[in-house]
Amino acid sequence: MSVVANWYPDPHNPAFVRYWDGNQWTQHVAPRQGATPAAQAQPVAAPRPASPQPGQQRVSQPPQPARMSLTQPQNTQPNRHDQRVPTFGAKKFAEQLQEENAYLRSIISQYALDDTIESERRKGELQGQVDSSRRDLAAVTEQVVGARGELARLSEQIVGARHTIDLQGLGIFDYEHPAESSTVLATQLEALRGRIKQTVRDGGATSATTQFTFNNSVAKGKKFVSDMSKLLLRGYNAEAENCVKSVRAGNLATAQKRLSTVVDQIARQGTMIDLHITPQYHELRLHELELAARHLQTVQREKELERERREELREQRKAEQELAREQEKLNKEKSHYLSTIAVLQANGDEAGVARLQAQLADVERALADVDYRAANIRAGHVYVISNVGAFGRDMVKIGMTRRLEPMDRVTELGDASVPFRFDVHALFFAQDAVSVEAALHRRFAERRVNKVNLRREFFRVTPDEVLEAIRDEQIEIVEFSVDVAGEEYLASAASGTA
């Protein structure tokens, strides 16, 4: 028995009905009348209708379903999206597509689907506006968070500025401290300044009575004590800053005494209210002074060492230049002797040849000595000199030079920096002059005048003590003069100008 042509539930989608033409399913679909969400969600596999009985009339055009209500949006396009245009019968295929398109347009018009499509379009536009508004809201929220962070940062700066103003009112300023540029002391200085500021903020910089009354008023008395404490503390801090700015490498004790004097003055002026600078705060400011002096001493020491290094390099260059000039001179003499000897030999003057060969041997020995001095940087002359007119009788200078003419170095030491020339007690050559000098320096290390800059080779010893040390160290020396003339000093003393 065949099933008559009519609209039946779509076996692939129960929410729709599909037209059965009596022989097969067609592509015509429509929403199912009275379909519920539950019915739409449950797929119904309708059995394939049996073929109609022979002789039964086939319906060529599907009738329109009567009064179908739409319960949800649906896709009314036929399932043509996965079909290809056939090579043969393309015209017929296009006519079928036009027919289906017209039919779908009629469905849209019949059930007022235009409004639904417009609603969907409008809904999409509104959704886009909502998404845009949400993005704008997120951006504004991010700006608000950033503004709050900036506000918090500015609030902290305001608090810090207020604290700074309060400290400046008490004489605490962030002035330039010498130790700020020190790689070693900068961290200590920063921590110390933090303790100084915290002590002032906590009220631990000064101490005064709490029982003072002014015009029989405790409140006025308290205000008077507070004002006086701030005034005198400001004066103390200003003096501490001046001491730091004026301290030098060698006057730390003077600067500390100057600041301690201010503490005593404040204590005397504040006797009525028992006002004084607390010892712990005064100790912090003294330590600040010490850091400044330590850095300045380090800088001064570095400058002196650099100056001594430059002087040593100049001395070394002079010695090398002297050796080079002497070597050139001796080579010329050697060449002259050799050429003269060759001429005498050609003339048969044996006596002249022997005489010049002896002189040539002296030149070659001198040349060998110069070569040795140039190659051996430890060889040189050790000198022991003094300057009675400038330093007294109990001070000598012990040093060494690589000059070929060591007295040139002694003369340079007695330049315009001292009033009289140096007097020489000993001047002798040593194969290892560096070791000889070091041995004498170790012997008198405790009596060195400058214990910071070891290149200053002055010692508070007498020439007799130096001679005794040379003998103890078994240093070979030909001549040592304990008493020297000191002609310039004696002449000046005799004329009454020394």
Automatic annotation (TrEMBL):
Residues 390-473 form the Bacteriophage T5 Orf172 DNA-binding domain. Residues 31-48 have a biased composition (Low complexity). Keywords: Coiled coil. Residues 31-84 are annotated as: Disordered. Signal peptide: none annotated. InterPro entries: DUF2510, Phage_T5_Orf172_DNA-bd, SNIPE. It holds the Pfam family SNIPE. Residues 69-78 have a biased composition (Polar residues). Residues 296-373 form a coiled coil. This is DUF4041 domain-containing protein. It comes from Labedella phragmitis. The lineage of its organism: Bacteria, Bacillati, Actinomycetota, Actinomycetes, Micrococcales.
